[in-house]
Amino acid sequence: MPMTFATDRGDAIPLHVVETGALKDWLAGQLPRVATWVQTSGFKAELGQAAIIPAEDGSIAAAAVGYGDASARNRGRFHLAGAAAKLPAGTYKLVTDLDAGTLEPEVLGWLMAAYAFDRYAKASGIKARLVAPEGVDAGRIETIAEGEALTRDLINMPACDMGPVALEAACVDLAGKHGASIDVIRGEALIEQNFPMIHAVGRASDQAPRLIDMRWGDLGPKLTLVGKGVCFDTGGLNLKPGASMGLMKKDMGGAATVMGLAQMIMALGLRVQLRVLIPAVENAVSSNSFRPGDILTSRKGLTVEINNTDAEGRLVLADALAFASEETPDLMLSMATLTGAARVAVGPDLAPYYSDDDAMAAALDAAARKVADPVWRMPFWTPYEKMIEPGIADLDNAPSGGFAGSITAALFLRRFAGEATRYTHFDIYGWNPTAAPGRPKGGVGMGARAVLEALPGVLGL
To answer: Care to name a GO molecular-function term for this sequence (predicted)?
Structure first.
């Protein structure tokens, strides 16, 4: 089903949004037979509940969905989407006094609940379609849903169909859709043009490593998005166990998320000079794989001791960040499925981020609450810098000891971002392990909607 609003042709089914505390008054305002029917059906206006109200001829006259109370709503998000999943196919029009600010994330969740990844088997999201409520920016919401769908599709695609070649093709398609320019450096040209760590990580694959560089817009502040595009991560010679390798098709989730965000930015016409950099590689195993103990020299000139070939994402990002910083953009963000430590710290729902910019952090936190895209600030804890300095080289890609893994990875990246650049790094998961309202199991965007909401204030747009 399309992730768009339905057109109101006058036959949309009224859908009443009822809080638990308002249920008694709402029932009192209904016809006696309706009130009796709703009560008999067990409807208590709790979150996720839905009640169908039949007409005398057996058709659907109206419906009601529960909106719980504030305490219950604080335990989750996209509550209307949870109830919408229980409604039969049809077109519905909300009857509610909720304000537009409350409704916008709710109806976005409804659109996102229509998503299904159906490339390889039949699948469908919710079948109930919604008419855009008055007062919400329907076009913006549909655009955000489209960007989210792009991110989900890319992450859900198996590596056999989403390797570096296919990821490049997806970027070319996105660029063509919005009139963006694109340049790609592939294979041995990475060595010639000084991207040694991107080349080292990806050289063992049959699909050549590459750096994808997309640009859009020629007015406004310079915004650079860098996304980790490791299309599959075996762990390299430090081979992952099978259980840890099963979800590694999602290791390009950072690239997928910045592409979804770029889609939103371009479709909405934000007044920025947008640049998207994606190092696209497969961390494969072959006779020419990079090895534990190797020392690589990065684009920036810093040397890196390889203590674990499974800590490869920070290597490809480092060269891309160094390249991006040479232009000194007004704002640079990186997104990556970088560390398991981040998942241990905050779980799969929160998008942890690192920033030395208090204004950026405040804007992100406020935006995240507004658009129901939770983020959590983590510390660039400078005293841990010594943990990424092995002595034999400038930097260590995988410090021993097991402490602060997400923080040390972020500190590693900060070394390449350039001191003159406002830099924020997201260590995302990119996967929803359990189906939830508006978020089916599988690939998912994290942090992109919060960033989009924060950008105008942060960049003075």
So the answer is: metalloaminopeptidase activity
